[in-house]
Specification:
Chain lengths: ~300, ~325
């Protein structure tokens, strides 16, 4: 543990606190149209710190409420991706041989199809999707890099002495995987989840901004941005505050991911360069194939 | 092997587009509204060949793709191929510029950091990069749009050229193009620089600990010469990552094109979504996958050039 860990945790704690305490903090109901004439499109003031939108809803309340939706979507779909990806990776490693290499090739192919374009195609065909459908859609299109990471990591773990020892004692198949290998994978999965949530928050904001994510009138950071899309200049508060909230949440998750990686792989970022670790940096966030990149090797 | 995989990618994308279309509710007749007679509906279904077996439809779909027939854009009233022929070069231009700037900037900053990893300057830079890295491109684009185009009025807000482009001299045309490029390029590149710098920093830090660097120091080379050598071997992970980053670059470009009304693929796709113009969307999916596969193949070639060890004797 080091003092470098703390800022990330502070950010994360703040985010969680705001989201959990959201309903207590919101001054108004997120969808309440307070006064459609007098309080329409008001600039930020003391009564409405983030202003009001075109139908006089309080933007602060909507940002707080929308954050819960955005984060819930990200956490649920990333959890789904992690489970599916880990299962796929475990199955591939257990099967071994031709099945394993075929499953890897399939992953490579799946990773080459840009995810956003697929999501856009689904949006074009189905239009509005419900929240559970969105979770499934984002979850089931996001597990490929988790699966690749898990296969690489498991392959490396299997070659280590403790795993050889377990196999020499007769531990086989699922039991070997569950009792001996998966526990070593846990830190990696936690780190991946952290970067994954960051990326998915940004993705949700983008999709909802295009009108393909969360549907109005339910607030989410992306839908508020969409409300402000036509009036970025005059009603800037509709774009600024949900945007800042998104950046803050993404930053908190990315920082947590970085901090955890340092914590779990202490050799990773030494004060002066003396690392033996050859793992490439994981990256996600707004852009990314979310995870460690392909050639991750054994952690010392 | 590479070629085979690229073919597999395009084939999968084409199949995916077909499956999605089959799963989706409605058929071409639905677009005409509720009030059409059953006879008309049957005629339309027969015209589109929707009464054939799925296997026949699938075969026909792949065969027409192979011949380059991508369908008809109902929204733009012209062949999808024509829509793409206009849009794709503009997207590739924007993405190419963004990739070059991101790579150059990211490698410079990352290598500079990696050579002094752990120092205060390195950590401050890392924090700044993490913030950049966490910015959603479309929101960054919105901020730049409001500040530099609307508020300060320094740069044009939308499009690829000015309306009076045709009447300009060659020099003015060049200036006009550059002025239109600045904001979209900046939106994409700021994030891209952060992405590549993170990788380059790590690779450089790694490389600085290698034995050959110690040897170079022991031989009495200057520190900058040592760093040049270390950087050469720190290139490889960055090249590998470049291939993997292409889907992310496409994602960024879609949003940035939308914000700045840059008439490329992303813009065309979003317009097509709003018009429910599926042929354009599915062609976009296939083409995006093809570009990604091609980019990954190029990255492989570049890696072989940079690393003599990978060359087959």
């Amino acid at each position: 543990m080091s003092r470098r860990l703390s800022p990330a945790f502070v950010l994360m704690a703040l985010l969680v606190a705001v989201v959990v305490a959201g309903p207590l903090l919101t001054p108004y109901a997120p969808n309440a149209q307070l006064d459609i004439i007098a309080l329409r499109s008001q600039a930020p003031s003391l009564a409405h710190p983030f202003g009001t939108d075109a139908v006089s809803r309080d933007v602060l309340s909507r940002v707080l409420d929308g954050g819960r939706v955005s984060l819930a979507l990200a956490i649920l779909s990333v959890s789904l991706s992690l489970v599916v990806g880990t299962l796929y990776g475990a199955m591939s490693t257990l099967a071994g041989g031709v099945v394993d290499s075929t499953m890897r090739r399939l992953l490579d192919v799946a990773l080459s199809i840009p995810r956003l374009l697929v999501l856009l195609a689904v949006g074009a065909l189905w239009g509005a999707l419900s929240f559970p459908a969105l979770v499934l859609l984002i979850g089931f299109t996001g597990w490929f890099d988790t699966a690749r990471l898990v296969t690489d990591e498991l392959r490396a773990l299997r070659a280590q002495e403790f795993s050889l020892a377990a196999r020499a004692m007769g531990v086989r198949g699922p039991r070997l995987l569950w009792r001996h290998l998966l526990p070593h994978l846990l830190p990696t999965l936690v780190i991946t989840a952290s970067f994954g949530v960051a990326g998915t928050i940004a993705l949700e904001a983008g999709l909802s901004y295009l009108g393909l994510g969360i549907q109005a009138p339910q607030a989410s950071w992306g839908t508020i941005l969409r409300d402000g899309a036509g009036v970025v200049q005059s009603e800037w508060w509709l774009s600024l505050f949900p945007g800042l909230a998104t950046v803050f949440a993404v930053l908190a998750c990315n920082a947590l991911g970085d901090a955890l990686r340092e914590r779990f792989a202490p050799n990773h970022v030494p004060r002066r360069a003396t690392s033996r670790d050859t793992a490439p940096i994981p990256m996600t966030g707004t852009t990314s194939p979310s995870a460690f990149s392909p050639s991750r090797t054994v952690r010392p | 092997m590479r070629v085979l995989q690229s073919v597999a990618v395009v084939f999968s994308a084409a199949s995916l587009a077909f499956v999605l279309l089959q799963l989706a509710p409605g058929d071409p007749a639905t677009a005409l509204g509720e009030g059409i007679s059953p006879e008309l509906r049957a005629t339309i279904r027969a015209q589109y060949g929707l009464d054939d077996s799925l296997a026949t439809q699938y075969g026909r779909w792949l065969w027409s793709l192979l011949r380059g027939e991508l369908g008809w854009s109902r929204d733009q009233h012209r062949p999808v191929a024509a829509v793409l022929a206009d849009a794709l070069p503009r997207s590739l231009f924007l993405m190419g510029c963004a990739l070059s700037v991101s790579l150059a900037g990211g490698m410079l900053i990352g290598a500079w950091q990696g050579a002094r990893a752990g120092s205060r300057r390195d950590r401050t830079t890392s924090t700044a990069l993490l913030v950049l890295y966490s910015l959603p491109e479309f929101w960054l684009a919105l901020v730049l749009l409001v500040v530099f185009a609307h508020h300060l009025g320094w740069l044009p807000a939308t499009g690829i050229t000015d309306e009076t482009y045709r009447y300009m001299s060659t020099r003015q045309q060049f200036v006009d193009r550059v002025r239109h490029l600045v904001l979209p390029l900046t939106s994409l590149s700021l994030v891209g620089v952060a992405v590549f710098a993170r990788y380059q920093r790590h690779a450089m830090q790694e490389s600085m600990t290698q034995a050959f660097v110690r040897t170079a120091r022991a031989k009495g080379l200057t520190e900058s010469a040592v760093r040049r050598q270390a950087w050469r071997s720190a290139l490889l992970p960055v090249i590998t990552v470049t291939g993997l980053m292409l889907p992310a670059l496409i994602t960024g470009a879609v949003f940035v094109e939308r914000v700045f009304a840059w008439p490329g693929m992303g813009f065309a796709m979003i317009r097509a979504i709003e018009a429910r113009d599926y042929p354009v969307v599915s062609a976009g999916v296939i083409l995006g996958s093809a570009v990604t596969a091609l980019g990954a193949a190029l990255a492989d070639i570049a890696r072989e050039i940079a690393d003599p060890r990978l060359r087959t004797p």
